[in-house]
What we know:
Layout: H1 2-25, H2 29-54, H3 60-107, E1 112-120, E2 123-130, H4 136-150, E3 157-163, E4 166-167
Parallel strand pairs: 2-3
Antiparallel strand pairs: 1-2, 3-4
Helix pairs in contact: 1-2
Amino acid sequence: MKEAIYSWIKCLAIFYILLTMLIHLVPTGKYQRYVRFFMGLLLMAMLITPMLSILEKAKTLPESFSSLYQQEEKKRLTLDMENLQKSLLEKGVEEQLEKNIPESLKKKGIEVTACKVHIEGELLKACLWTKEVPDGELERGIKDELAANWGIREENCKVLAWENGKQTMGDSSPSGTSAYSNRTSGIQ
């Protein structure tokens, strides 16, 4: 028991010498605060360790910490994978809708030059470009078709005109930055 106490005191003395040396090596007072804080935490751990070993808790503490850390890391990885899967699924659905919507509109006799779809949570937003300037009837037909077949609400749908590779209305293009936000999809 006497040797264990001497060994513990020796470790504390060496720790204090290293702490002093490290504080003198740190260039500014700003960083010294962080070094002192971290070293203070280490000092507390060193002071508590002998008491825990007396209570025979020192052996179980690292194991329980390790198991808790592994559980938390597993939860974090699972959540990251779920978010990645959701993101990839949304991207795939967006691409499929961008392909299918113009095809279904073409069957109704509505010619669409381009289509951009964006999913935000539970909302679907669409921006469509037609060859001709959309009048009220054409725009109503497109919005009704999108609402009936694809579940895209009227307020989440934009219909714009596209002629000779340029827009005739002053809104965003399918491949440029939107006038409304920093999205490149052109959808609000």
